[in-house]
Amino acid sequence: MILHVGFYERPTLDVARDLIGKVLVHKSPEGVTSGLIVEAEAYIGEDDPACHAAAGRTVRNAPLYGPPGLAYVYLNYGLHDMVNAVTEADGHPAAVLIRALEPLEGLPLMRRRRAKAPWRKGKGEVPDHELCRGPGNLTRAMGITLADNLRPLTRGPLTIQDQGLPAPLVAWDGRIGIRVGADRPWRASVAGHRSVSKKLDPASAR
DNA sequence: CGTTCGATGCACT
DNA sequence: GTGCATCGAACGT
């Protein structure tokens, strides 16, 4: 079952927690890929220094201010597309960054896409559990690009689904890779999962 | 183990 | 011109 708008129109931390264990599905002309969400981060409002809305509304971050349930995709470091789910009420800038997946469907396609990365030239095959480990890696493996920016996650080629899988035990700790606001414990993950981009203290699991 | 650093493109100032 | 919500190789210890 595809998650509806009501799922996203809630406090962002609740959405981040509940996205763990859901399934991101991308239907592209090349084929279908999907993966279990095992790591996600919340970015909440103009008061969050790490949120793209921290400096107010701009051309790039406009999707954050839009209605919940849209995809916010942007290019980072000139190399990596990052995919977010817009949350909260229309006009309140917040989103959840999808950081890691456990690959479920379309693994051969994921391997082919990952192998195309310039820095992978001449390297061996990517191990299955690394195909979607990290936000840049997962968009490359899933074929998610800037063309998916502003697409509704509630219908169309890119969706997030509840496939009835058991809700995993969710651990919280500091967000990764940001210069400011890393102290906020807004990274949700499946503790100890192989596809999570960084290990954390198992004691923080709840 | 650890830290440094290049690749690469675009929004923002 | 600057600075990234990254990745992974190349070093140093």
From the N-terminal CA to the C-terminal CA, the straight-line distance is 27 Å
**Proportion of residues in extended strands:** 25-35%
Shape: globular
How much helix, percentage-wise, in residues? 10-25%
Number of helices: 5
**How big is the Rg?**
16 Å
Task: Give helix and strand order, one letter per element, not per position.
Answer: HHEEHEEEHHEEE
Mean pLDDT: 94
The largest sheet is: 8 strands, antiparallel
Summing up helix and strand content along with how strands pair, one would put the structural category as alpha+beta
Let me know the number of strands: 8
Poorly predicted tracts of residues: 201-206
Q: Can you tell me about this structure?
A:
It is a single chain. This protein is of the alpha+beta class. The protein contains five helices and eight strands, in the order ααββαβββααβββ. Strands 1, 2, 3, 4, 5, 6, 7 and 8 form an eight-stranded antiparallel beta sheet that branches. α4 packs across α5. The protein is globular, with a radius of gyration of 16 Å. The protein binds a DNA duplex (13 and 13 nucleotides) through β3, β4 and α5.
Briefly, what is this?
This protein has 5 helices and 8 strands. The protein is α+β, with helices and mostly antiparallel strands and 206 residues long.
